[in-house]
Amino acid sequence: MTIIAALGGLAAPAAKAATGTIPIVFSIGGDPIELGLVSSLNHPGGNITGITFLAAELLQKQVGILHDLVPGAAVIGVLVNPNNPRHNADLSSVEAAARALGLDLHIASVGSENEFDATFADLARNNAGALIIAGDAFFLRVSERVTNLAGVPNRYSL
After folding, report:
1. CB of 157 closer than 8 Å to CB of 144
2. Which pLDDT belongs to residue 156?
3. How far is CA 139 from its chain centroid?
4. Same domain, yes or no, for 35 and 70?
5. For residue 41, what are the domain limits?
6. How many CA atoms lie within 13 A of 72 on its CB side?
7. Could you tell me which residues come within 8 angstroms of residue 41 by beta carbon, excluding any fewer than 6 positions away?
């Protein structure tokens, strides 16, 4: 039997667009209904099913936890990948949570490896005292570089 395992925000929509017959199992951080992958969570329908981590809700919680851990951070940086289909929804979630706490955000969009140095320099110029990293397979792949640029010792890398 053939099956497609689609891991991450870009893989699942691509797999669904590619076939209507081969079974697809996805793992994503976003809402599969919003992304057009399934018709409902209880009965996905078609040839696709999977799991979601509902990253938007997690990002909102992260803002609150980060504020508790670093209460002196007047500006929080948010690292997002503009190539991720969840980009706008992730930003909306973080912005809503930050507004509720009276925090300022500095959005840092990184879609390729050559953008990191300039982005982290910009975060420093804007006095970001803490950083939230939106869930994205790209950031996981380069997690050691991200943690190094953020000044986190390697023993804490993702």
Report:
1. yes
2. 45
3. 8
4. no
5. 4-52
6. 0
7. 32, 33
Residues 115, 89 within the same domain = yes
Q: What is the DSSP letter of 84?
A: S
Q: 59-88, pLDDT tens digit by residue?
A: 888 899 999 999 999 899 999 999 987 788
DSSP-H helix ranges across 19-157: 55-69, 87-101, 116-125, 137-141, 143-149
With contact defined as beta carbons under 8 Å apart, do 15 and 6 qualify? Answer: yes
CATH number of the domain enclosing 71? 3.40.50.2300
Contacts of 95 (CB under 8 A, 6+ apart): 105
Residue with tokens 């979630």: 93
pLDDT in tens, 87-143: 888 888 899 999 999 999 999 999 999 999 999 999 999 999 999 988 788 888 898
36-48 mean pLDDT = 88
